[in-house]
Amino acid sequence: MQSQFKKRPFSIKSVILLMTFGLIPIALAAQSYQISKGEGEVMVTGTSTLHDWEEVAEQKSGSIALDNTGELPKIKTLKFTVEAESLKSGKGAMDKNTYKALNTKKHKEIVFVLKNVKSVSPVVSSSDKYKVVATGDLTISGNTNTIDLPFNLTINGDKVLLKGKKALKMTDYGVEPPKALLGTITTGDEIEVHFNTVWK
């Protein structure tokens, strides 16, 4: 019996090599993409007692990892960040009120981090586009809520496109809607985030 066991020696080195080579296909299956800062757009729209408004994010960053080896792509990771003070409306006074409401001196970033993917379904008219509903944590002004984020995912060679929109309430994140002219102009609580982003 002892001689039989001696014929099958397994060293720690052999086990490590087997584990390493076994994990290589998994590592290669997921491909990582970084957001293209010079392409795409992220915009926030809303209303006020005076007029509708919009702000465009001039600084954004993020990464997404996809496994596209199966029938449907799998989103392994997704993180998206907007610099809060890069939101620009073209009106300096409005921007200052926005930064004050968001408390940007303390909370510099708006961040979405994926927790899980609820659904992925192909768009019938396209071979490379999918409808996705992702669940993740959205942090605004230091307050975090878990939300469902719907978007279209397009995989085009070395590019990935994410396009969608999401309605939010500022007060859900402890943000008081900005006011102007001694409170005579009030911003509506409801806003909508529109994103059309390119990842490479």
From TrEMBL:
InterPro entries: Lipid/polyisoprenoid-bd_YceI, TTHA0802/YceI-like_sf. Residues 32-200 form the Lipid/polyisoprenoid-binding YceI-like domain. The keyword Signal applies. Keywords: Signal. Residues 1-29 form the signal peptide. It comes from the Bacteria. This is YceI family protein.
